[in-house]
Amino acid sequence: MPTPSPPVVASCTCHEQGVTGDPRDLSTLTERQTTVLLLLATGLGNVPIANRLGITERTVKKHVTTLLDKLRVTSRVEAALIATRQHDQLCRTVRRTVTVRAGSAVGTVREPVRLQAGP
């Protein structure tokens, strides 16, 4: 006798099961750590992350180690999964300073950064 197949689910039921995202507090991450985490989640290694941010590979390694400790995980993959699950929250916190010129006036503005894998 064949094993019955599981019922087909027409839509996501995560909210019914109380799954609403990862409970880790990301507010303890610095802006640089958040940027490294988002780049890590795109699949980049330490050297490409260092090149994108203009820092050394050793500094990236330090950021990754600190991230793993703060997120209470043991691997980059686990950290990347958290970044993916809480992407919207993380992206709201990553900003860069941009110089704005209007006539002879010069000022700075903090604007969101859109991070993508690649060069």
Please tally the β strands and state the result: 2
Give the overall form.
Answer: extended
> How do the SSEs run, as a string of H and E?
HHHHHEE
Side by side, the strands of the main sheet go 1-2
Helical content band? 40-55%
Radius of gyration: 19 Å
Judged by helices, strands and strand pairing, the structural class is alpha+beta
The biggest sheet amounts to: 2 strands, antiparallel
Sheet-strand content, in percent, reads 5-15%
Average pLDDT rating: 74
**Number of helices in the DSSP assignment:** 5
| Low-confidence segments | 9-21
Give the N-to-C terminal Cα separation: 55 Å
List keywords for this structure.
119 residues; extended; 2 strands
If you had to describe this structure to a student in words, what would you say it looks like?
The protein is an alpha+beta fold. 43% of the residues lie in helices and 13% in strands. It has five helices and two strands, in the order H-H-H-H-H-E-E. It has helices spanning 31-41, 46-53, 57-71, 76-85, 87-93, and strands at 95-102, 105-112. A two-stranded antiparallel ribbon has the order 1-2. The chain is extended, with a radius of gyration of 19 Å.
